[in-house]
Amino acid sequence: MTDEATAFVPGHVTGFFTTDPADDPTKAGSRGGGLALADGVTVTVERSDERSVTLDGVDIEIEAVERVLDALRATVAVRAETPLPLGSGFGVSGATALGAALGTNALLERGLSENELVTIAHGAEVQAGTGLGDVVAQARGGVPLRLEPGGPQDNYIDAIPARGRVEYHVIGELSTEAILDGDTAALTRAGEKGLSRVVKEPTTESFLRASRQFAREAGLLTDDVRSVLEDVAAADGDGAMAMLGETVFTVGSGLTDAGYDATITEIHPGGATVLDSSD
Amino acid sequence: MTDEATAFVPGHVTGFFTTDPADDPTKAGSRGGGLALADGVTVTVERSDERSVTLDGVDIEIEAVERVLDALRATVAVRAETPLPLGSGFGVSGATALGAALGTNALLERGLSENELVTIAHGAEVQAGTGLGDVVAQARGGVPLRLEPGGPQDNYIDAIPARGRVEYHVIGELSTEAILDGDTAALTRAGEKGLSRVVKEPTTESFLRASRQFAREAGLLTDDVRSVLEDVAAADGDGAMAMLGETVFTVGSGLTDAGYDATITEIHPGGATVLDSSD
After folding, report:
1. Which reactions appear under catalytic activity for this entry (chains A, B) (predicted)?
2. Would an 8 Å CB–CB cutoff place A270 in contact with chain B?
């Protein structure tokens, strides 16, 4: 019997997306495209007499994590560590929920499959209203193109076969819940357009172009993000806005070339995984 | 314009499988379970005036690779490097075919998606008769459970959420083509039984138990493999036979514990990937 189990879940920046509601949260979600990042969330789940969740050492309540622990009937201590900020478009809540699912399953020997655990975390994130597509993208890794919404039993995911350096620069936060609660019809039309462009030309260049166009068409581009993207373009860089955060990311060195003190990471080829479950 | 592109594809040992023929090679294949291995095949594709394929520096003809290069209309030099032996149940031909597809797409900017490249390599391997499920398993990584046959547009894959040390000991070769050309009805019945057992209990322990039972029921267990597995069991280890090779693998240290000079690797969590396509 082990006392703790650890999982790693890559970060995920979304470039464009749709909203696809459904009564069943495991069938609801979004289509879209994004990048899985080597900067992610390491989640350790430990036996405990009472439930607790910390993010970088600070007590926190993340609804999606609570819902995962409810579904797994787990009284455990969840410790999440990440270099990524919350609320800035990196899928930290979804990653913590998925890591809690993988870690709890390993620790308490719940005997669930990978797709079942992804489905639980995806449904929890959708019900919490904090994300629609991060969890399934983080389960796949790489540069996922989510062609159908929902959990792994319902969706269909392809990917751009690419690797490389990624930089990001966080300006501020945006509330996913506030935007998803608003009128999302125009956003979904813009997301569908972006997806069909990138499916025709699955390269990181076309992904970034479609993402910039989506941010404009969906009315989500802030003045500060626009200004940073102009600086990146002036330095011959290639970037876009992370959905949903006031964050700019580039594939390649566009942000540092433009003089920004950006954080450097890379596309993470693999999906979420337990770190060791052999003992 | 780059002069070469490199891809990494994990090795894959199959524990149990079915054969699922179909007229369309991208829909044909197998269901089953296996382990993706950190010991894999690194494939470098280089511009060239004539087509060539080498494996560990030696000229070789691998039909699945030729078919991939035909499909991509590519005149390139393919250099594959691997610590794994050919013909011993590690999916080296499928891995080389998939690596050639990923590398050629990146080098020649063919603009295909990940699933399209996996479909091409899977269909090539099926047509060559050298494998039925390795390519799609290598594209996923981890401990894939192939619940439906065929390429990514048709199949459904789940996985056992596990990591850990793997050891393997190669006794000799088995011809995949010879066995697949024979009567596979009993083999498929045994494979279906194994899969349904592991779906109910998706752990590495149940996977290895189902794999041992499959080898016996499908009549593929050789005397030498049986003898090694008995030694592993006597040392409290947990192993099975790699399909299709005269090879024993263990999750954990069962082979070295039993005194064998085994090769040590581990479950590879990610799938096949280009190594760098950013330049």
Report:
1. (R)-pantoate + ATP = (R)-4-phosphopantoate + ADP + H(+)
2. yes
